[in-house]
Amino acid sequence: MLDFTEASLKKVLTRYNVALEKAMTPEEAAEELYPKDELIYPIAKAIFEGEEDDVVEGLEAAIDAGKDPINLIDDALMVGMGVVIKLYDEGIIFLPNVMMSADAMLDGIEYCKENSGATPKTKGTVVCHVAEGDVHDIGKNIVTALLRANGFNVVDLGRDVPAEEVLDAVKKEKPIMLTGTALMTTTMYAFKEVNDKLLENGIKIPFACGGGAVNQDFVSQFALGVYGEEAADAPKIADAIIAGTTDITALRDMFHKH
Fold first, then answer.
1. Which of 16, 35, 158, 187 has the maximal Cβ count within 10 Å?
2. Alpha helices per DSSP H over 76-189
């Protein structure tokens, strides 16, 4: 029979982060990360809590106090979303929290745009879609939420998207990256068709693919494919691209884990 002393049990709990979870709630962890500025703090907190009305109320107060609406996108909304992403990456909060916060952030961005004549800058545009024949869009919705939460402009083509429609969107939007998700093995082969159409038209942007049916070996078979094991990999791949890593082989070295 295993015989744990109190001291050894504490070590086990700390090793697996149980003690930390008991000692600090997600709200308490977020509290330590919020900015101290009295005008920015309530906006960041409202983003974390996913409270759209509170986000707008905080923005209104900050604008009335002289803050520039467009600057508030980076200085307040993205700061609050940064708290969310950090706690998500650490496993303290989960995807439903992120999606609620992303919705609140998007409402905040729209409010800032309405109250300014300027257009906010984004990191870049990403086109997202679900493979032709596949109607399961939960994974794609998570990817788009995380990309938007990280400051990217997302063109969401929806589900069951024909390859020709994907190509047309890429030609029109000129994104830094294309994403595709598929839940079924019968639909994931549409990614190869999308890849080939892009190459036939001289387009060589990274094509980040993932989903329940998709694996790294499959994605590696086509020239533009970069595999994302988790939805959270999508903004990381996009960030790597805007930082200068556009070579497909280099991106695979960074994100292919097996």
1. 187
2. 78-89, 95-114, 138-149, 163-173
Residues 6+ apart with CB under 8 A from 242: 123, 124, 176
Sign of the four-CA dihedral 139, 141, 128, 228: negative
**The two three-digit tokens of residue 239, written as one number:** 């960030």
List pLDDT tens digits, range 161-202.
999 999 999 999 999 999 999 989 999 999 999 999 999 999
For 205, the token pair is 């942007």
DSSP string, 47-104: HHHT-HHHHHHHHHHHHHTT--HHHHIIIIIHHHHHHHHHHHHTTSS-HHHHHHHHHH
> Torsions phi, psi of 2, nearest 5?
-70, 140
User: How distant is the alpha carbon of residue 176 from its chain centre?
Assistant: 15
Number of helices followed by number of strands (H, E) in the chain = 14, 5
- Looking at residues 11-40, what average pLDDT do you find? 72
DSSP 121: P
Q: Using one digit for the tens of pLDDT, what is the confidence trace for 214-236?
A: 999 999 999 999 999 888 899 99
Q: What sign has the CA pseudo-torsion 41, 45, 50, 52?
A: negative
Task: Tell me how far apart the alpha carbons of residues 69 and 114 are, in angstroms, rounded to a whole number.
Answer: 9
Phi, psi of 61, rounded to the nearest 5 degrees: -65, -40
Under a CB-based contact definition with an 8 Å cutoff, are residues 225 and 191 in contact?
yes
Which candidate, 233, 236, 242, 241, places its Cα nearest to that of 210? 233
pTM: 0.70
Q: Which helix (H) or strand (E) holds 126?
A: strand 125-130
Largest CA distance in the chain: 71
